[in-house]
């Protein structure tokens, strides 16, 4: 079983694929989506759960998702058909940074997928290049709640604290118009859901050739969370507009 397959399995009960509850997702979408019609782009959409919820929220909206995983896009297409929004969803299997469109978008999303562009600020540059002048960006990435251990940095990569993260974004020409720092409940629910779902699948498939591997994976990831980064990792989601030219 590939890491991608394991990830999709782990997110079965948490398809938004970020440490955010449903109420937070609704509020963030309400702040970033255009009110009447419009077009939204998700860079690194995965199974496109953000776009599916956006399309259900705004009947006149049209959406485009870009991701490298054809398997994830297959899941997205099936879900779009089941939820009655397939006619307004366009999906592309390619690198996010290589996607181009003849028209800019009213909203650009990239939550939990900054790795697609190599980090938070490069992701914002990628969003800017595809955003209409009056459009909004929804971006979500990690930050340090407290001084991280060396193991936490090794597992998750380099972040800064909350204030420094916002300062960096503002310094690149963006105005935060809304933000949400995931709560302890949201962060814990996300981790318990991921690694518990994997463990449950392995226990329910004792004869499967990948069962032992998946169970070991769930144990290892849970231990990393509890011992390496639970107390230091936070997740910030921002709604941004361009800084006006003065």
UniProtKB/TrEMBL annotation:
<feature type="domain" description="Methyltransferase">
    <location>
        <begin position="36"/>
        <end position="144"/>
    </location>
</feature>
<dbReference type="GO" id="GO:0008168">
    <property type="term" value="F:methyltransferase activity"/>
</dbReference>
<keyword id="KW-0489">Methyltransferase</keyword>
<dbReference type="InterPro" id="IPR029063">
    <property type="entry name" value="SAM-dependent_MTases_sf"/>
</dbReference>
<dbReference type="GO" id="GO:0032259">
    <property type="term" value="P:methylation"/>
</dbReference>
<keyword id="KW-0808">Transferase</keyword>
<dbReference type="InterPro" id="IPR050723">
    <property type="entry name" value="CFA/CMAS"/>
</dbReference>
<dbReference type="Pfam" id="PF13847">
    <property type="entry name" value="Methyltransf_31"/>
</dbReference>
<dbReference type="InterPro" id="IPR025714">
    <property type="entry name" value="Methyltranfer_dom"/>
</dbReference>
<protein>
    <submittedName>
        <fullName>Class I SAM-dependent methyltransferase</fullName>
    </submittedName>
</protein>
